[in-house]
Amino acid sequence: MLRLKTDTREDWIGQAMESMDDILLDHAHCEKKAASMALNLMFRYPEHPQLMKPLSELAREELRHFEQVFAVMQEREIPFRRQRPSTYAGRLVSIVRKDEPHRMLDLMLCACLIEARSCERMKILAENLEDAKLARLYKGLLACEARHHRIYIDMLETIFPRDEVMARLDEISTHESQVLETPDDFVRLHT
Q: Would you state the pLDDT for residue 145?
């Protein structure tokens, strides 16, 4: 269960399929950011040794996904470059509290929801893309994204009471659905 409060709006898939080069480039950048987030959390919270192995494994898997998407881009001769990023993540993390340990809880739950939204969007792509190779790529990533979503919850439950984790996840998920109400005027994996 991905714990998302809203589904992706219906017009997203059409826009995404018309802009698959942009989606692939954004996806590659998202995988790098996900790896960076896991590494950042390792450096930020060394006092929680139980987080180190799962975060390290997560960072490596995210980088492998980056490499997969990057290889598809190279096959399609899509240049890797800077790209105007979606405002989704920045607006999502605006809910993060400043004081610790609440900051850690909120940051990891935001990462959890980004993984959930990625999973949902990749499922939509896998089911709608006519390009069989791309559809297989996205279908192959679904289980990993869902597992990444769950890994963040599992890690947090080693530090915080489950009720606290789930209550805050519910609040941040509501916020995430509000973030999606104002999409960017350009298509990205998370707009």
A: 84
Residue pair 7/117 in contact (Cβ under 8 Å)? The answer is no
DSSP secondary structure code for residue 179 in this structure: H
Angle between the 162-180 and 102-128 helix axes, to the nearest 10 degrees? Answer: 50
Residues 6+ apart with CB under 8 A from 109: 152, 156, 165, 168, 169, 172
Q: Is the pTM of this model over 0.85?
A: yes
Which residue carries 């180190």 as its tokens? 52
Q: Which one, of 74, 93, 78, 75, lies nearest residue 33 by Cα?
A: 93
The CATH number of the domain covering residues in 11-180: 1.20.1260.10
Q: Where are the domains of the chain?
A: 11-180
C-alpha 93/C-alpha 37 separation (Å) is: 12
At residue 2, the pLDDT reads: 78
Nearest by Cα to 189 from 78, 115, 92, 110: 115
Mean pLDDT by 10 residues, the chain (191 residues): 89 94 97 97 97 98 97 97 95 97 98 95 95 93 87 97 98 97 92 83
Spatial separation of the C-alpha atoms in residues 84 and 173, rounded to whole Å: 25
